[in-house]
Amino acid sequence: MNNVGRGISLQVLIAISIMLSTLLLGAALAYQGYRGIQQTLVAAAGDSAQLLGKTINERARRLIDPAQSSIRLLTYDDVAQADNLPQRLERLPLLVESLDANKMLSAVYVGYPNGEFMLVRRLRGAELKQRFAAPDMAAFLVQTITAGEGGAMLGEWRFFDRQLTLLKAELKADYHFDPRTRPWFQDAITRSETVLTRPYVFFTTGQIGLTLAQRSVSGAAVIGMDASVDDLGGEVKDLRMTAGTEMAVVDGEGSVVAYPDLKRVVVTDNDGPRLSKIGELGVASLTQLFGESAAGETPYKFRVDGAEWYGMRAPLSTFARQDVRVLIAVPANELLAGARQVLVDQVRWAAVLIALLLLIGWAVGHRIGRPLRALADQVRALAGFDFSREVGVRSRVTEVRELSHVIGRMSRTIHNFQAITLNLSRETRLDRMLGGVLERLVDASGASGGAVYLTDENDDSLRLSAQCQGNGYPPTLSLVARSHEDLAAAVAQALDSHAHYLAVALNDRSHELLGILVLQLAPEHEAGGTVQQPFRKFVEELSGAAAVAIETRQLIEAQQRLLDAIIKLLADAIDAKSPYTGGHCERVPQLAQMLLDKAVASDSGPYADFAMNDAELYEFRIAAWLHDCGKITSPEYVVDKATKLETLYNRIHEVRTRFEVLWRDAEIDYWQGLAGGGDQEALQLTLERRRAELQEEFAFVANANIGGEFMKDEDVARLQQIGARRWQRHFDDRLGLSHDESVRLAAVPVPLLPVDEPLLADRPEHIVPWGERKPPVAKDDPRNLWGFDMRLPAQAYNYGELYNLGIRRGTLNEEERFKINEHIVQTIIMLNTLPLPKHLRRVPTIAGNHHEKMDGTGYPRRLGKDDMSIAERVMAIADIFEALTAADRPYKAPKTLSESVKILGFMARDQHVDPQLFRLFLSSGVYREYGEKFLRREQIDEVDIQPWLDMVDGA
Question: Which residues cross the membrane (predicted)?
Fold first, then answer.
């Protein structure tokens, strides 16, 4: 078998086969090509002649058809019924327009049954103007014949410029013309269709043309036009097939209508200029071709003066009634010269191609004949750690084919090992990691299919987590066996299949069962019905790496679930801290996710290129849940402050007690007055008046405490007036105080008791200074490491009674409003102190910028639109819309969808939120989807979003 002398070299065999095949193919193609060219010579000439005839016919039609259209339109005009010259001249603009619309028209005229006549001629060129002695500016000549007194015919010429301004008018006594004697008039007056005369030489201009005439619709006149066909001569010259081709257009009487040399077409004799006859051209080939009777669609071969010609006659349907046709005579030597050259070139290229194919055949045979060298090169690449190349060669030699197959499997196995390693180290999602590893493992092991089952934390069953090349695996398995032998039998029984399986346990580092790997075996992996030990060892070793990866991914996922739970726990705690903001930290992330998903899914508009991967989406969700985590530092009584005097409790009760004291003082004054002998009636009236004043004033103070309406200047002044009332304190106000309260009162002098005090007052002890708790929010604060830019109130708190009751709108004073806004500062500071992993580094930025505005007037850092990512701008819209529609706030009623969209629309108009995101918020229907999920039924009303969309588009 290895004896070289007993066979022929594979390289030589392949090379000889390719060379012989190429020679045979080349010879056959050359012969067939030569025969084909011979057969197509005549047909090609005939097709070319027919095409030339059709081309000339079409170009002639383009000359005649516009004129026919114009003359049909004129048959409907009033010029046909005009019975005097002024009326006819009024239609001059229309006749001139007909000439301008078709440059091939030289004149348009109207003949009347009484012999009157009107002709409009375009004066084109100096020669024509000189012939008619026209003024320099003349563009048109109007020739008229009209009946004068006594029936005498009067001839007149009028010259007009381009604007149809009359330049000159003169009588022509020698101008006599009777249209009724002309053939075109006689033919047209008796017919309803357009009359087309034979081509002839125009006497006036010397051009070759024909006359079109048609009776008017009323029958009162005949409209005529002179159309030039001089350009057909140029067309004939341009369409010649070869340099020696002779072509002419002749009518049935042998008159030449078109020929490249126009001077030979027109001859002059005693009767004036006329068209030459075909014999007068001096072209023998055309003369003989005109006299031949055998001329059809194929070329007609004839001889003239010893030379061979191919002739063809093609009728022109445009001049069907005049029997006009095209004569084409082509010299045979010119026609066949191109064909012979093509044949020679084809043979030459065929020879070159055959030589090239012979060289390629020898080279291919040389390469195919040495497959072992190719395999050696491939194995050498594997030794050089290049596993990306496909290994193997095709060969009919059995040993080479088997060696190629084995090396190819080895290469694929190594490549799959690499892919498995990369998948185990790079893939972060457990399900995708298992699918990728299983697919590579099935391919590397040559198994028919496989599946991975993982233990269920809730019970002892195994759930299907990944499968490859097969779908006959049940979703769960309930197995008790753990040894290899029992496990394989239990798997085979559970799968209820006659196929053979290898089941390998996947254990973690503590030897706890994580799951099992099931491979459906191929026949070569079994010997005597049992799995071959090397293959089992290979699968077990590989499954160990998979088990470690599974354990690692499960730990990572468990940590991530724990992190998510802690974050949600924090958000729930913030919501639970205040019954008035419950659900805010839960609803905002869901609304933000809705809007962000729409932006990511956009395939057009400003967000067509916007995309986020899984890590960025997870980072956004974490930031959304933590966006208000700083509220954990906000005092609950400030967040929930429902009245102006509320701190840890509503201090209106203190004020009411003071009014009670004044009430009692009024009664005491009454009784003391009676005891002193005063007038009872006067004292009673004074008591009633003081009681009424106290009732009314307390009601005013209590109403101001609610903060439901805007406080006017006169309301604040009245508070000052009411607060000026005095009441007497008998008890020491320094008793029972906390350390902080005592510190604030330390600088206040102690008055002697009893002491008169105002009913309402802003006392020094009401001021709580910042002290060491001053937050670093000022732009120039050296402690400000986060870029905050907020105005800091002078004091931490101001509990002054008049100060708080005088709040103009709402229930929060400046210090308390800052304290609420400070939650975003604390959010940023808290999140920046966390050791966040790299893929969560932007969480503080996304979570902390939802109170910024697009125009740079927001807080805490006064960022503009360009300083904020799309995710941050999404958070801003979500936070505002949730707050507008929330039904759990004590200081406002929940707003409807339309009211909330209106407010958000004004904010988009004023560049407080992103207008484009607001447009997406409306056009995608996120606002309604959120409303149907979270709002009360009475809040969901009809919303006309079109005005807001128009506003955004027009901005």
Answer: 12-31
Sign of CA dihedral 69, 75, 76, 78: positive
Q: What are the backbone dihedrals phi and psi of residue 84, each rounded to the nearest 5 degrees, phi first? A: -145, 165
450 burial class (0-12, 13-18, 19+ CB within 10 angstroms)?
buried
d(CA 72, CA 214): 7
Cα 188 to Cα 178: distance, rounded to the nearest angstrom = 15
**pLDDT single digits (tens) 884-906:** 888 776 656 788 999 989 999 99
Domains of the chain: 52-115+178-333 (3.30.450.20), 427-561 (3.30.450.40), 578-637+824-954 (1.10.3210.10), 652-805 (no CATH)
More confident of the two residues 873 and 299: 873
Q: How far apart are CA 71 and CA 210, in angstroms?
A: 14
Tokens in use for 319?
Answer: 């001049």
Burial of 949 (0-12, 13-18, 19+ CB in 10 A): middle
Token pair belonging to 315: 């009728």
Q: What is the pLDDT of residues 433-487, one digit of tens each?
A: 777 777 777 777 677 778 888 877 766 677 777 788 766 677 777 765 454 455 6
**Packed helices 371-383 and 398-426: angle between N→C axes, nearest 10 degrees:** 20
Using DSSP, state whether 234 is helix, strand or coil: helix
Q: How far is CA 444 from CA 65, 437, 535, 775, in A?
A: 79, 10, 11, 63
H or E, element range at 325: strand 325-331
Q: Percent of the chain, pLDDT > 70? A: 73
Would you state the pLDDT for residue 3? 45
Side-chain-side CA neighbours of residue 130 (13 Å): 3
Is residue 489 helix, strand or coil? Answer: helix
Residue 482 or residue 103, greater confidence: 103
Helical residues (DSSP H) of 75-212, grouped into ranges: 85-90, 92-101, 126-131, 183-188
Report which of 241, 212, 95 is spatially closest to residue 158, judged by C-alpha positions. 95
Q: How far is CA 497 from CA 70, 491, 519, 795, in A?
A: 90, 10, 13, 80
Mean pLDDT over residues 811-829, rounded?
Answer: 85
Q: Which amino acid is at 227?
A: A
Q: Collapsing DSSP states into helix, strand and coil, what is residue 612?
A: coil
The model carries a pTM of 0.52
pLDDT band, residue 401 (cuts 50/70/90): low
Element at 725 (helix H, strand E): none
The answer on pLDDT for 840 being more than 90 is: no
What is the structure's pLDDT at 424?
A: 67
497 phi and psi angles, rounded to 5 deg: -140, 155
Q: Is the pLDDT of residue 882 over 80?
A: yes
SS3 string of 396-435? CCHHHHHHHHHHHHHHHHHHHHHHHHHHHHHCCCHHHHHH
Question: Under a CB-based contact definition with an 8 Å cutoff, are residues 134 and 204 in contact?
Answer: no
Average pLDDT across the chain, whole number: 78
Instruction: Locate 696 and state its tokens.
Output: 């009314």
Rg (CA), the chain: 54
- Residue 892 exposure: Cα atoms within 13 Å on the Cβ side: 11
Helices (H), 578-609: 584-601
- pLDDT, tens only, 765-783: 888 888 888 899 888 889 9
**Residue 312, C-beta contacts closer than 8 angstroms, at least 6 positions apart:** 45, 46, 49, 50, 53, 295, 299, 300, 327, 328
Q: In terms of C-beta density within 10 A (0-12 exposed, 13-18 middle, 19 or more buried), how is residue 335 classed?
A: buried
Which H or E run contains 814?
A: helix 814-833
Residue entry with tokens 């005109």: 290
Average pLDDT, integer, range 837-862: 90
Cα–Cα nearest to 326, from 423, 241, 452: 241
Q: DSSP letters of 681-707?
A: HHHHHHHHHHHHHHHHHHHHHHHHHH-
